[in-house]
Amino acid sequence: MTTDNFKEQENNEEVNETQVDEVTEGNVETTDSLPEENTTDSVGTFEVGDVVKGTVYKVEDKFVKAHIEDSDFEGIVPISQLTNKRIERPEEIVSEEDTIEGVVIKVENEEDRKNVIFSIRKLDEANAYEKLQEAKDNDETITGKVMEVVKAGLVVDVGVRGFIPASLLSDAYIEDLDQFEGQDLEVKVEDIESEKNRVILNRKRIVESEKAEERKKQLESLEAGSIVEGEVVRITTFGAFINLGDVDGLAHISELDYSRVEKVEDAVNIGDKVQVKILDVDPEQERISLSLKQAKASPFDSFIEEHSEGEVLEGEVKRLVDFGAFVEVTPGVEGLVHVSEISHEHVATPSDVLKEGQTVSVKILSLDEDSEKVSLSIKETSEKPARDPEPKVYRDDTDDDAPTLGDVFGDRFKDLDI
Q1: Which end of the chain is more exposed for a tag (fewer CB within 10 A), N or C?
Q2: What is d(CA 99, CA 84) in angstroms, rounded to the nearest whole number?
Q3: CA distances from 141 to 109, 147, 182, 186, 284 (A)
Q4: Where is the S1 motif domain (predicted)?
């Protein structure tokens, strides 16, 4: 820290003149008060801004006295210049025989007295600002102690008074700031203006970085096919987000239950603890695909053990589509009745003859264990109705307009055995 830097700081924060006067008038053997601040910045052998070192030989209520090294000057440190912390008495931080160092803020060089008024606090602050600037430039993490909790955030001691706005305290809203009082916190330097005594700190970036590292570790530990426990934390129209600890995964609506789910809320609610099967993990995109239904035994497995092709069952029409009807034959198992298997008569549209919710008899045509598909037929549960033979039609393709026997007798002789 250069002399010019100290001078600039001195201009931005004046020494408490009342305290200095009390020191020099009431406690030092002299009849004169301290002169005004040296406008030339140079008196005798010391200049304002010089760094001096001394040994404490007297500690009073309002000041500390020290012998300045290699000099016949006496050093005086007012209580306000001892530290940036709030103290009642100098004894809280300094004792006799201690070696102290500070920056000169006033000089008295007269015949009957040679004093330098110096500030430990200003030197500490100057050094602290240098370290803080270096930490900011290198994006280093520093530690500070919470000195005070205010409405807008936290006042933190980082060599100087720094401030963490509530918005930069964490990645989530924190209602109770009092919980941090007196704690040591790791922070980043967000902004610094030493000439304005302004230091803005950021804890949110550290929290986010730590969580990102934890997410990375958990993503690397998850294996497709494994079954884990999670908690439903968010619901959308297309599925449910489930927290697995440090990461969230998505269970698509089609993977919530073996039965068809119309609304996600019909299957799960926020706060539910659920078992899920990990279908896929993408560490780079931080995406996890989950399934609730595949974490449970498939009802198709039980169905295929208990039923066989050709068997007739009752089921409920669940959905009608252009190509047929889906019929639930047991909870969680639906089979397709193709439009051609609905009736012996021609059916143009399934909704012409069936309604959702209707109970129907169906015959199992096939069971596909690999794809878990069931083919069903409604028409195979009833006999094909007998049909009347088509009547014969007699035609005369000649150009003769004269009546023929067919025209005269028609089908009067159709039943004759000839």
Answers
A1: C
A2: 18
A3: 45, 19, 19, 6, 26
A4: 49-121, 139-204, 225-293, 310-379
Q: Which long-range contacts (CB under 8 A, 24 or more apart) does 319-324 make?
A: 319/260, 319/356, 320/350, 320/351, 320/354, 320/355, 320/356, 321/350, 322/349, 322/350, 324/350
The answer to whether 316 touches 309, Cβ cutoff 8 Å, is no
pLDDT at 8: 44
> Percent of the chain beyond pLDDT 90?
62
* CA-based nearest residue to 122, from 35, 204, 6: 6
Contact 168, 201 (CB under 8 A): yes
Is 398 exposed, middle or buried (CB count within 10 Å of its CB: 0-12, 13-18, 19+)? exposed
The answer on pLDDT for 397 being more than 80 is no
Residue 280's beta-bridge partner residues? 289
Pairing mode, if any, of strands 248-252 and 287-291?
parallel
Residue in the block written with tokens 């606090």: 121
Tokens (6 digits) for 327: 């019929």
The phi, psi pair for 111, rounded to 5°, reads -60, -40
* The residue type at 56: V
Average pLDDT, the chain: 84
Does the pTM surpass 0.85? The reply is no
Closest CA to 194 of 382, 350, 332, 6: 6
Choose the weakest-confidence range: 33-42, 57-66, 105-114.
33-42
Token digits of residue 331: 């909870």
For the stretch 236-253, pLDDT in tens is: 999 999 999 989 999 999
Radius of gyration of the chain (CA): 46
Query: What pLDDT does 384 receive?
Result: 82
